[in-house]
Amino acid sequence: MEQLLTLVLIIVLIGSTRAAPPGGTRTFQVDNTDARLTVPQLITKYDYPVEVHHTTTEDGYMLELHRIPSSPGSPVVFLMHGLLCSSADWILIGPGNGLAYLLADQGYDVWMGNARGNRYSRRHTTLTPNMHAFWQFSWHEIGYYDLPSMIDYALTKTNQSKLHYIGHSQGTTAFFVMASTQPEYNEKIQMMQALAPVAFTENIRSPLLQVMSRFQNTLTALFETFGVGEFLPSSSILQEIAQLLCSKDVVSNLCLNVIFQLTGADPNQIDVQIVPILVGHSPAGASTKQVVHFAQGMRTHQFQRYDHGKIKNLVMYGVPQPPVYNVSDITAPIVLYYGLNDYLAEPMDVIKFSGMVPNLEECKQVELRSFNHLDFLIAKDVKSLLYDEVIERIKKWKT
User: Fold this and answer.
1) Cβ(303)–Cβ(143) below 8 Å
2) What H or E segment, with its residue span, contains residue 261?
3) Which listed site, 47, 89, 239, 329, has its alpha carbon 20 to 30 Å from 354?
4) Is there a catalytic annotation at residue 235?
5) Which residues contact 223 (CB under 8 A, 6 or more apart)?
6) Is the N-terminal amide bond of 283 cis, ω within 30° of 0?
């Protein structure tokens, strides 16, 4: 059932798109074999040291972290991926461009988290991914359980009291959950830099999430009826299909059209050879409830906990409506970066959130007007447009 829904979604999205021109000359020093390597294999391939670590959350999920270590005592930078993604986000575009590599080159101790349910964090002390119960979480649980567990683990291993946090998309949402529901963790953050931050979702332009929002009640009932817990599961079959559709030799790159429909179109910043590598690592696994939770925010215009329905809300929260996150409790220093062409972290929603954060350092628009949601990870010029400034802020903060 899950694979069928995934294939139907791909067909619908492809059918609704128009051909987009491929990118220009080769930009990144990567090759197609990168699509089939794990994150540790990729890091090793490009001659960086790598460590694999594991931590178990309070509610039993066993998470995998990837580390590019530095010398003892080096500042710690923690990177957290977005929805349907993994730690691969930070290294896909290779050395000299990927944020994890750039940070490692500067001598930082780089830790990359993996949320419950993605390809690297699919174990539990009592459950398996084949069980419906395994997938009964949204990004609330990722923020409330996963991030604290991974942050505490990284700080303990490095014998440090604070770290720098950089998140993309849902990686920012989870941080806002953690920092508002467990405010003591604000003291463990030197600075949080949010790339394409997502809290409010009122103005999202992604066609997929607009459909999810419009038919949210029907889809939720359908998913519950058929026990569909995982959204867009990662599988070898889907990766083979993606390799065919996303070939850099295809003039009308179908995968590129799908991506643009979801994130915003910016063909001039796409190196087509990176697309099959990207799709080789995404979707990396997520729960259906993560997507539904974002869709709920589109309807309520609130940044709030998961809506289970009035009766279950009374049991879970003691009130018929989900509690709103108290973002005024987020006291860690925060920098927000947004793009004008981002379909998911829509500028109006980002600016609305920025006015509610008590310790905002800056709300910064990326200069390129066509910059979209995915450009934060794979744009040709992402280093000069964004990453150089992100790293410079860390350097200045330490000084």
Assistant:
1) no
2) helix 254-263
3) 89
4) no
5) 229, 288, 292
6) yes
- What whole-number distance in Å separates Cα of residue 45 and Cα of residue 317? 48
Q: Which amino acid is at 182?
A: Q
CA distance 5 to 9: 6
Q: Which pair of structure tokens corresponds to residue 85?
A: 């993604």
Residue pair 341/314 in contact (Cβ under 8 Å)? The answer is no
The one catalytic residue among 124, 164, 281, 373: 373
Tokens 């979702």 found at: 201
Cβ pair 116, 148 in contact under 8 A: no
DSSP characters over 336-376: EEE-TT-SSS-HHHHHHHHTT-TTEEEEEE-S-TT--TTHH
User: Count of alpha carbons within 13 Å of 378, Cβ hemisphere only?
Assistant: 26
45 neighbors 37 (Cβ within 8 angstroms) = yes
* Number of neighbours of residue 355 by Cβ within 10 angstroms: 8
Distance (Å, whole) CA 61 – CA 63? 6
Note the pLDDT tens digit of each residue in 312-325: 999 999 999 999 99
Q: Which of 281, 293, 287 is nearest to 230 (CA)?
A: 287
Q: Which of 87, 138, 169, 282 is catalytic?
A: 169
Looking at residue 16, its pLDDT comes to: 37
- What local confidence, expressed as pLDDT, does residue 273 receive? 85
Looking at residue 312, what is its pLDDT? 95
Distance between terminal CA atoms of the chain?
Answer: 54
**Backbone dihedral angles phi then psi of residue 105, each to the nearest 5 degrees:** -60, -25
What are the beta bridge partners of residue 366?
none
> Count of residues for the chain?
399
Q: Report, as ranges of residue numbers, the positions in the chain whose pLDDT lies below 70.
A: 1-26, 208-228, 232-258, 261, 398-399
